Amino acid sequence: MNRQRILIGLGLVVALRFSPALAAGHAAVGNYGFDTSGMELSTKPGDDFNSYANGSWAKRTVIPDDHSSWGVWDVLEEQSRTRVRGILEAAAKANAPAGSNVRKVGDYYDSFMNDTAIEKQGMAPLQQQLLEIAAIDSYSSLATAMGRAIRVGDSMPVTLFVYPDFKRPDAYVAYLDQGGLGLPDRDYYLQDTAEMAKARDAYRTYIVQLLELSNPSMSHAEALQRAAPIYDLEHRLADIQWSRVRQRDLAARYVPWQRSDYPVKAPGLDWAAYFKAAGLDSQPVLVASVDSAITATAAIVPAVPVAVWKDYLAVRAVDGHARFLSKAFVDAHFAFHGTALQGTQTQQERWKRGSQLTQNALGEAIGEIYVREYFGADAKAAAHQLVENLLAAAGHRLDSLDWMSSQTKAKAREKLATFGIKIGYPDKWRDYSKLSVTVGDAYGNALNADRFEYQRNLAKLGGPVDHTEWDMTPMTINAYYDPTKNEIVFPAAVLQPPFFDPNADAAVNYGGIGAIIGHEISHGFDDQGRLFDGQGKLSDWWTAADAAKYKQRTTALVAQYSAYEVLPGLPLNGELTLGENIADNAGVVIAYDAYHASLNGKTAPLIDGQAADQRFFLGFAQVWRSAYREQIIRQLVATDPHTPDAFRVRSVRNFDRWYESFGVKPGDGLYLKPDARVRIW
Questions:
Q1: Architecture field, domain 123-324
Q2: Longest CA pairwise span in the chain (Å)
């Protein structure tokens, strides 16, 4: 999931095994794992705990010009990217055997880094795609072009993903979804605010630029004339698409249709042509995951002239792969996506872009090298044990719930006992033998990588679910919970301070890594994860009374977070962020319990005048140190299911132990009366 920011750390195992205070050696951050220089001691913790823990850090932090935000997550991502750079540059010089993963990694990166050759090619790499689009002469051939476009990653009005069947999680099924917008979300087209209007104006300008760049003989006046109906088409699509909140209703998103149902239930698109071009013509059933939007999209197809659709497809094709083209395309892409939408001032250095793009294409080929250098088998085993310890704490917390019946608790316990755990890296590496990489063809390599990934997913249909597969690379600073596999997955690259430090105070490690591990575990029981049973099946295993009590609590959490104003006049969307907010609140209490269990009845010492519980909560706040540009904040509030970092820290206000630790009293800004504190876990 996008920017899920869930971590795991080896250090808590060390703390569990050895010391509840300081391990041997010196912490990488501060005296005990927390950077006290980043605190703003003039702020009362009960008024603004994020400012108290991180305020001085925020005042002195300058967001780098090539970033839209900056924080501890970004520092770790930069470190991971730098390590990957070393791997890529070594691979490019290795002269490895043709067809080997090392050779493909090196050639892919080297081809992107050869900007001189790319500049010389100009728009030539685009020609074949543009010629195919120009040849569209009917709505039937338009449907064929749309099906072909999703094979190379172009965002189309109807798109595809392959995922385990919600009702039969041992088998894969094709899900049809909505897409095809050039702006980040439907709300950018529909919301009547000055900020959204500014983004729309920037997008209209960008459409004109793409038309001119891909049609050198086109006049500016003609580009303006042809750009307007493209934007109007996207506005029509946005108007009928599901909102981000509505898409969170996973039961509503499971609507299996027979392939033969599509022309009847969604007339207007030549489904036979689309399915054949997309390689789906042999699938008996495809899930309409946003059924009403698919029906409405199909109806729009014949209502828009073919000529407009052709221009639209050309713009989507150019935008989708502009980063692999000459400087004029790259600069236009960045001016819109980077500066206009995110506020980023300058482009990242080419090696940074090349590192990320090569990871996108050949992630596990790079990851296999990465883990040999940076993550050993011992670390994997120790981290696995750590997650087991946090799962045990989650089980004890589950047993202590006073609002859940014994019947539902028994089912929840069964689910918790069947959690799968993946640590560090896959046991089986991805096979890239069918991916073709050609030296000097950066654009062609990108298309081939997209086709390879599409075909790899298409090949899953009709076969059993591969439980060894990972959805993230070992170098990713992130993790996830998969409800259909009922598993939690933690890549290797996150085992770094300040999230984990074997020489840091255990309380800080638990507040950081522990809370985030607890967060990930609790996703199995958030408002979406709870809909799936221990076998990964969409199933109603809750009693009606318990489901009602749960809904009462989550409704209160929605109201609490919806009252937060991120920018003047810009409130959080508590419904969109509900699942992550549930997990943030749960992660803190699970980790707190696990920390105190690790003390084995002993009293943790004071360190630098801070009690252990205070250090725990400061460790939690420290991992969310961040600064954002205004444009990216607005984009995240509209599209991201995660609450912006500073507001994630506020989950402590629902936990009694935080009040006791910092003497928070009525009248303090974050104070909630005990009966107003939302208690789910």
A1: Orthogonal Bundle (1.10)
A2: 78
